[in-house]
Hints:
This protein is mostly helical.
Amino acid sequence: MEAEAEIGPHAETPPAAARAGDLERVETVLGGVLRWGVVASAALIGIGLTMWVARHPGAMTDATALPLLVPAKGGDGAFPTTPGELWTGLVRLEGLAVATLGLVVLVLTPVVRVGASVVAFAVERDRWFTLITLGVLAVLIVSFVLGKVE
Length: 150
């Protein structure tokens, strides 16, 4: 008689099925990175703008108050444009700094996802995709380092 296939918790999982399960878990984690990055970003932007409105209550009803939201660089309530200005604004609990942090989180979320993809491909020992994803991550990092808005 032929040996019957083992059924139950000790049964061997076919490699293709195991790999499909691993891939599904990786996709779930990577999707979660994007989802939570967007949620955290939206929350920070909402909290920051709420803090700003609380500090400038007339800005929502006064049409001449727009300069309060978009003042000249370095003016009271100006959006931080450097890491130092952002840190100083966060320490002072300035609403526009908190909102700007939300924008930074939003921009960095896909970069974190690419970094998580590198780890996932490395764990799976998929050298080809690990190298490709490392290349994409390098391009993203170089663009942040060398990129400059004037």
